[in-house]
Amino acid sequence: MSQAALGEAVGVTRHTIIAIEQARYSPSLETSFRIARVFNVGLEDVFGWEGD
Amino acid sequence: MTFRERSTWVMICMLILVGGFYLKLVIGDGVPPSAAAIPLVLFTVVLSIAAQIVLALMSPREASTPADERERLVIDKAAHFSSYVLPTGVVAGLGWFMASQDGMALFHIALTSLVVGQIIEYGMQIFLLRSKV
Fold first, then answer.
1. Are B71 and B133 in contact (CB under 8 A)?
2. Percent of chain A that is helix, strand, coil (3-state, to 5)
3. Which residues contact B3 (CB under 8 A, 6 or more apart)?
4. Contact B113, B90 (CB under 8 A)
5. Where are the domains of chain A?
6. Which of A30, A50, B31, B63 could bridge B25 with an S-S bond, Cβ 3.0-4.6 Å?
7. Minimal C-alpha gap between B16 and chain A (Å)
8. Searching chain A, which residue's CA lies closest to the CA of residue B128?
9. Closest CA relative to residue B81, chosen from B41, B14, B126
10. Which residues of chain A carry a pLDDT beneath 50?
């Protein structure tokens, strides 16, 4: 799936998807759930947090 | 580069050029501010509308798409950061006026604060769009 297609599926721009992939932007909870739902996986399968 | 970033670059360049041209007219050539300010403001408004139309015609789909959550956050953060400039300039101008009774200086300090504040806001938007928000 392309970045543009994923962006369109979850309601953000391709550049926002790029920023998420490059860890330059943390998406909202709603967008995070939408991304996980697109790939039919759980939230923690898509996003991780290493802590401070 | 996104449509919004292109639009912001156009606006920041326009403000710097028009602001610089105004300073050249008023300080360099001695044109009365009342003769220079209104035409330049009108010119800036017309030029910025025309530039936005051209940019929108180049990317009609992107132009008609509303700002997404990241872009809204960038816009809000940039506006917050630049929001200190205009009040600071106006207060400084008011203080200068009380000390000097120079109304034109108050006008120019307020106008400069407005333009510099907008330039800073656009600059912050560009910086935040390219870095971590």
1. no
2. 60, 0, 40
3. B55, B56, B59, B62, B63
4. yes
5. 3-41
6. B31
7. 27
8. A24
9. B126
10. none
Q: Kindly list the residues from chain B whose CB atom is less than 8 angstroms away from the CB atom of residue A29.
A: none
Residues in CB range of B98: below 8 A, 6 or more apart: none
Which residues on chain A are in Cβ contact (under 8 Å) with B61? none
Mean of pLDDT values over B9-27: 91
Q: What is the per-residue pLDDT for A50?
A: 78
Residues 6+ apart with CB under 8 A from A2: A14
Contacts of A11 in chain B (CB under 8 A): 68
pLDDT digits (tens, 9 = 90+) for B26-62: 888 888 888 888 888 899 999 999 999 999 999 898 8
Q: Which of A16, A18, A29, A30 to mutate to test the interface with B (most CBs of B within 10 A)?
A: A16
Taking CA atoms, B12 is separated from B44, B54, B60, B106, in Å, by 11, 16, 21, 24
B-chain residues within 8 Å CB-CB of A27? Answer: 69-70
Measure the CA–CA gap between B112 and B60, rounded to whole angstroms.
Answer: 34
